[in-house]
Q: What sequence folds into this?
C-alpha cells in the first residue's frame, strides 16, 4: 500500500507517521510537499499533525488552500483513504471534506496526555480490526481540539454512524471527566458519509510501539492496510 | 482603493471560552458590571478596486471562503475609500 504523507509548512508529525508506516507496518511511504499536484499513484493520504501556516487565522484554514488539497479532495471523492490526524483533522474540517469545526479547548490549555477512545463504529476501513466498544489508549497533543457541529449536523453524524471514536473512561463510559478538550458529545474522531475520510485529534502514530506506552494505534493502521488489501484482486501466481 | 474593515465574530450558539476567561479577568479586576464578553477578530484589507460594489463582492467572497468559518462565525465589514 502506498502512503502519501502530506507536508505543509509547519507540519511536525510527518516523520512520526512515516516512521511507523515504514518500520512497523512495512509500507511504501513518500513525504509529499504541499505544492505537489499529483497524488494519482497513492492509495492513502495522511495529513499529519502540527501547526500548518502557524495556525494563523484558524487552525487548518490556510492549509486547505494549498495546491495539494485539490488532489486530496480527488482522492476522497475516488474512495481512496484519507486520514487527518490532529492538525490534519482541522484541515479536513476547514476544507469541507469533514463536517463541523475544531475550536479552542474549552479550558484554553494545551493538552498533551493519554486518552482512552471508545470505538463507536467498527464497519469503517479505519476500525474494522477493532471490536465494538473496544477502548484504545492513544495520546492527544493539541490546543484546538474542541469539536463542534450545529445540532442538525450532529444528528446526521449519529444517524449515519459517522462518529468513529469518543473519549471515554477505561470502562467505556462517556463522561465529562474523560473529555480532554470540551468536544461535543466527547467526539474524538469522525468520518465522511462514505466512510473513507477519517479525522481524529488523537495521534495513533505515537502509539504503535510498545516502548512508547501503547500499541493501540496499530489497530487503526492495520485496519486501513487490511481494508486496502481486501479490495485488491487476488494476484495469480504463474 | 478601499480599506475594508472586517469583523469576524462567533455565532451566538457557539461557546466562547476565550470570552469567558476575559470576563473572569475583568471581574477579578473589580469591573463587576461586565456581564458578558465575546472575543472576535478584526482584519484590515486594502482592496485595489475603483467600484464599491465590486469591492463589496470580493470582500464578501474572501470572508466566506477564508476569513471566517461560517459554520461557527459571522462576519460584517465596512468599506472606506482611501487614496
A:
Amino acid at each position: 500500500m502506498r502512503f502519501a504523507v502530506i507536508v505543509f509548512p509547519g507540519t511536525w508529525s510527518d516523520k512520526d507517521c512515516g516512521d511507523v508506516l515504514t518500520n512497523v507496518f512495512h509500507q511504501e511511504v513518500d513525504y509529499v510537499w504541499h505544492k505537489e499536484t499529483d497524488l494519482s499513484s497513492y492509495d492513502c493520504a495522511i495529513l499529519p499533525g502540527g501547526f500548518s501556516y502557524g495556525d494563523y487565522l484558524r487552525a487548518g484554514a490556510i492549509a486547505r488552500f494549498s495546491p495539494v488539497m485539490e488532489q486530496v479532495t480527488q482522492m476522497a471523492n475516488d474512495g481512496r483513504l484519507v486520514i487527518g490526524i490532529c492538525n490534519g483533522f482541522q484541515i479536513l474540517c476547514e476544507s469541507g471534506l469533514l463536517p463541523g469545526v475544531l475550536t479552542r479547548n474549552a479550558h484554553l490549555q494545551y493538552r498533551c496526555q493519554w486518552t482512552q477512545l471508545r470505538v463507536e463504529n467498527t464497519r469503517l476501513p479505519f476500525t474494522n480490526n477493532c471490536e465494538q466498544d473496544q477502548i484504545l489508549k492513544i495520546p492527544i497533543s493539541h490546543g484546538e481540539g474542541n469539536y463542534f457541529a450545529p445540532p442538525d449536523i450532529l444528528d446526521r453524524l449519529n444517524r449515519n454512524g459517522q462518529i468513529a471514536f469518543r473519549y471515554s473512561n477505561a470502562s467505556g463510559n462517556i463522561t465529562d471527566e474523560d473529555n480532554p478538550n470540551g468536544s461535543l458529545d466527547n467526539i474524538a474522531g469522525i468520518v465522511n458519509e462514505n466512510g473513507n475520510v477519517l479525522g481524529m485529534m488523537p495521534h495513533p502514530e505515537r502509539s504503535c510501539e510498545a516502548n512508547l506506552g501503547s500499541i493501540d494505534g496499530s489497530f487503526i493502521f492495520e485496519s486501513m492496510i487490511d481494508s486496502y488489501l481486501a479490495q485488491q484482486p487476488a494476484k495469480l501466481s504463474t | 482603493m478601499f480599506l475594508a474593515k472586517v469583523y469576524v465574530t462567533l455565532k451566538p450558539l457557539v461557546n466562547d471560552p476565550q470570552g469567558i476567561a476575559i470576563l473572569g479577568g475583568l471581574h477579578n479586576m473589580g469591573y463587576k458590571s461586565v456581564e458578558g464578553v465575546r472575543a472576535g477578530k478584526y482584519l484590515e484589507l486594502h482592496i485595489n478596486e475603483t467600484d464599491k460594489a465590486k469591492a463589496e463582492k470580493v470582500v464578501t467572497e474572501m470572508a466566506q471562503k477564508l476569513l471566517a468559518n461560517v459554520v461557527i462565525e459571522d462576519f460584517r465589514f465596512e468599506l472606506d475609500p482611501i487614496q
Observations:
- The two ends of chain B are 6 Å apart (CA to CA).
- Chain B has one domain: 2-81.
- The longest helix of chain B spans residues 52-67.
- Residues 24 and 30 of chain B are 10 Å apart (CA to CA).
